[in-house]
Amino acid sequence: MRKISLLSLPLALAACSPTDPASQADAPIPAACRPPAPFAVQHPAWATNASLYQVNVRQYTPEGTFRAFEKHLPRLQKMGVSILWLMPVQPIGEVKRKGTLGSQYSVRDYRGVNAEFGSLADLQHLLAEAHRLKMHVILDWVANHTSWDSQLSKEHPDWFTKNAQGNFQPPVPDWQDVIDLNYSKPGLRQYMTESMKYWVKDVGFDGFRCDVAGLVPTEFWNNTRAELEKTKPVFMLAEWDELHDPPFLKKGEFTPNTHLLEKAFDATYALKLHYLLDSVAQGRRPVAALPGYFAAERNMYPAGVYLMNFTSSHDVNSWDNPEGARLGANAQALAVLTALVPGIPLVYSGQEAASTKKLRFFDKDTIQWNGYPLNAFYAALLHLKRTSPALRNGDACAKFTIVPAPADCFVFERASGDGKAKTWVAINLGPRPQTLPHPAETVTDAFADVGAPVEDPQVTVPAHGWRVLSTKKP
């Protein structure tokens, strides 16, 4: 195993991690600093400085249950996690099942609970404990397709897309364990909306991550978001990216849907950034490609719109590789980048363990936690994200400036709208240390020695490393 820490992370954790990270107030973004029309989504106040943590319940513990995962909540709360994203919890189809346990995205009953994970009472106990710890929880929702033997395929076969022979068909050729739903059917739309309302109102979830959201009509999502908001403010994450063709579709097979973030969703995937970072880490693209990406991103999405930045997820880990195998020595440096550029960051189950395991998708394959060697790293990073006004999500008044830097480096500064809080970030993806100038008013090192002044006008950024300097004026 490669060396884990480049800087003094235990010290950083002790210095910047409050016992209760949720005690930091999450102030709503002022109306003047929200994205311009037609982007009308009102983000919940608790998402303003939030990060996401994806929970793979099946692989999280040897038991693979809600109750076993619940024991990790205090650790995750202290690590600075704000929003937990649970992968689908419903019963899984048996017909044409892949592997021994099947895909969690092959839903058999939208209003049931998978006995593999526990009971509905166990799930609600988990939600109640997360809420007690001031965390919110969203549920992975699969609206585009069901299992072949789903309750809907038996009771409402007319709600499904059919082939020329009049038979059910997968939405994508490779997805042979699921069948496509047809959203031209009003009854399907009503059923799906009512099912989502059930999980928010009756079970206690705080929103949804919506699988392949761009394959479902935007009108459905818009109407459903409005219905959910009648119960409470929710957070909605779309698995989609208008800047990047979905990897499961052929180029040109789908006409991009550019309206998901206008009324329905708080956030969508920064997929193009994810694949670009993989290419940069593997030497296939230069670091100099990053400014061009951010220019294109801002052209598509106005400042203040949330994009979810990440180096790993359930799909990436299982189908590509863990971040260590893909990103090599730059895995942690790129985690810093994705956490601190504009957007909402994601941490996937096992990243704080520096796990090198490519988890099986359709079978039991428990994460190897190894004593959580990167817990302190992610704690320092997520607490900085949580507490800095310069790093707030969805703040259109904030400033994001890319600073000229040597070839292997990416340097940027973020500043709050009033200019009182600034965070300067230098990422060095090269094999040699780099000495860089930094703004004189940026005086504390967020990792090496939190709170200690940085008096030298230049700082050294380690090879495959980072420096994060910040200030907050009175």
Highlighted features:
single chain, 474 residues, TIM Barrel, eight-stranded parallel β-barrel, 18% strand
Write down the CATH topology: TIM Barrel
Strand order of the largest sheet: 1-2-3-6-7-8-9-10
* Content-based structural category: alpha/beta
CATH architecture: Alpha-Beta Barrel
Number of helices: 15
Q: Using DSSP, what is the number of strands?
A: 18
Q: Tell me the count of domains.
A: 1
Oligomeric organization of the protein chains = single chain
- Helical content, roughly? 25-40%
| N-end to C-end Cα span | 44 Å
Fourth CATH level, the homologous superfamily? Glycosidases
CATH top level class name: Alpha Beta
Strand content: 15-25%
Rg over alpha carbons: 22 Å
Unreliable stretches (pLDDT < 50, length at least 5) are: 1-25, 252-257
Main pleated sheet: 8 strands, parallel, barrel
Which helices and strands appear, and what pairs or packs with what?
Elements (H helix, E strand, L loop, with lengths): L8 H8 L35 E4 L1 H4 L5 H5 L2 H7 L3 E4 L33 H13 L3 E6 L3 E3 L3 H5 L22 E3 L5 H18 L3 E4 L7 H11 L6 E4 L21 H4 L3 E3 L1 H11 L7 H12 L5 E4 L4 H7 L2 H5 L3 H10 L3 E5 L26 H13 L11 E5 L5 E7 L5 E8 L5 E4 L6 E2 L3 E5 L4 E4 L3 E8 L2
Parallel strand pairs: 1-2, 1-10, 2-3, 3-6, 6-7, 7-8, 8-9, 9-10
Antiparallel strand pairs: 4-5, 11-12, 12-13, 13-18, 14-17, 15-16, 15-18
Helix pairs in contact: 1-15, 7-8
